[in-house]
Design brief:
The protein has 473 residues and is α/β, with parallel strands linked by helices. Helices cover 37% and strands 19% of the residues. It has 17 helices and 20 strands. Strands 3-1-4-5-6-7-8 form a seven-stranded mixed sheet, with helices on both faces. It is globular and about 60 Å long.
Length: 473
């Protein structure tokens, strides 16, 4: 069957809040990869990101859009736990006469559950969907398509898993499909003039951290580390219009020489952008790469630090200890780069005192911002067996671990206290100052931001005063 008009839908509508929203900062790249693979097999393709389609976030308006545009197949990406019930409610009002295809990380994890919750779903694409969607759009018999779950009468059938495709056969996302630019917002309003985008230069990770829910996909497949050619990466970067580009590789510096070559070519071709990347702390062993990254325009590095405690780092199989973390940050402080640290709390056997030390440790080593996540497990996580066999540990629907010693609410309280200790009013000002000092923000970028900072500080100070009064009681 040849489809005339395919709709690819990112279903996560943004609820307006008083805080800065980073949940709409980057495009839905996974959905874009799959849509790009499908576009040659349909007459027309529309990509909708409901985070930026306020009018179409209304279900009635969305259904009217689908009917008026003659859409005859709907593909929805479900990547995350958030808003899962809302997304299911949306799927259940999709027109029953239009094929409904679902994919994404969460859809792969919840294939059976989704098919039960959402009778309108016809097919679930499991795992990476670029090849699978082409088979579907070409009208191959479902029984001959790998990597799908589908209905046949009253039965649900699951085909064999599809082998992971080579990275070189996956096309870069077609950015012309977008209907909007991606920006940082507060209450739906842009707070800078900067636009954001992502690029994937390599897939996979050679490391084996025990907690990692991304190294293995929801099918238990581990993608070996695989690189795109440097020339293709540079060509794509040069074509990107956004001001800030995130390398979404799990570790940009896995191959140090390759990372240096990318930086060299960015400099040689005079590509003027600001780059963000994820790396491991071992990059501190390669100051020549850090120097080139600064010259190439890298403004922020995200680092998986995970814990200040050696026994936890060893249990998580991180491959380094707290001494190496401190030594790495002595090197990092020499470079005008913004450092964002990821930490995990609620680890097996971790005490409240140890969890609360995260904020102090992060300030001691010089991390600029932090993100703290509860320890999680997925179906194929190395930690799952321990949790399943432990009578005192439990797992939420989102895969978050809690225990008899620390309930889910206890862990939320500890996380709030950790952030309170780290993000003082002075720290907020330091963050803004560093944005300026490393030239992440220019004068024209700062003007819209100035009006937001007092509100953020006021909110932070009010929170501090309230908590101080509460403690006195």
């Amino acid at each position: 069957m040849k489809y005339k008009h395919a709709l690819f839908l990112n279903p996560y509508a943004i609820r307006k809040t008083k805080s800065a929203s980073i949940t709409r900062l980057f495009p839905p790249t996974g959905l874009e990869f799959v849509a790009t693979s499908a576009k040659d097999y349909v007459e027309k393709l529309t990509l909708l990101d409901l985070r930026y389609e306020e009018e179409l976030s209304d279900i009635d308006n969305l259904l009217e859009f689908i009917n008026n545009k003659g859409i005859d197949v709907i593909c929805v990406g479900i990547g995350w736990d958030r808003e899962f019930k809302d997304v299911c409610a949306l799927l259940n009002v999709m027109p029953a006469n239009i094929p409904l295809i679902i994919g994404g990380h969460k859809a792969t994890e919840e294939a059976d559950n989704l098919l039960e919750l959402c009778p309108n779903i016809d097919i679930i694409v499991r795992g990476e969907g670029e090849e699978t969607i082409r088979d579907i759009m070409q009208g191959l018999p479902l029984k001959d398509i790998l990597g799908i779950s589908y209905r046949q009468g009253d039965k649900v059938l699951h085909s064999d898993n599809r082998p992971l495709p080579g990275i070189d056969i996956i096309s870069s996302p077609d950015r012309s499909l977008r209907r909007n630019q991606y920006r940082l917002t507060v209450q739906g309003n842009n707070i800078t003039n900067l636009t954001y985008d992502t690029i994937l230069s390599a897939r996979g990770c050679p490391f084996n951290c025990k907690f990692c829910t991304f190294t293995l996909n929801p099918l238990g497949q581990k993608r070996p580390y695989a690189e795109r050619s440097v020339d293709s990466v540079i060509e794509e970067i040069a074509s990107i219009e956004a001001d800030i580009v995130l390398f979404s590789d799990e570790n940009f510096a896995t191959n140090v020489k390759r990372a240096e070559k990318i930086c060299d070519l960015i400099i040689a071709k005079n590509i003027k952008k600001r780059f963000l990347a994820q790396v491991r702390i071992e990059i501190a062993n390669h100051p020549q790469l850090l120097d080139k990254m600064v010259k190439a325009g890298f403004k922020m590095l995200s680092l998986g630090i995970e814990s200040p405690h050696d026994h936890i780092l060893k249990e998580l199989n991180k491959g380094f200890d707290s001494k190496k973390i401190r030594e790495a940050f002595k090197v990092f402080r020499k470079y005008p780069i913004f450092y964002h640290g990821y930490f995990i709390y609620g680890n097996i056997g971790e005490t409240e005192e140890e969890m609360l030390y995260i904020g102090k440790f992060a300030r001691e080593i010089g991390v600029d911002t932090i993100a703290c996540s509860k320890l999680r497990v997925s179906k194929f996580s190395p930690l799952k067996k321990f949790v399943d066999e432990s009578p005192s540990h439990y797992v939420t629907e989102k895969g978050e671990i809690y225990s008899d010693a620390y309930s889910h609410s206890d862990l939320k309280r500890i996380n709030k206290e950790t952030k309170r200790m780290f993000y003082t009013p002075y720290k907020v000002l330091q963050i803004v100052k560093k944005f300026i000092n490393i030239h992440w923000l220019t004068a024209k970028d700062i003007i819209p931001l100035i009006s937001v900072v007092p509100a953020l500080l006021k909110s932070t100070i009010a929170s501090e005063r309230y908590k101080a009064r509460t403690r006195k009681r």
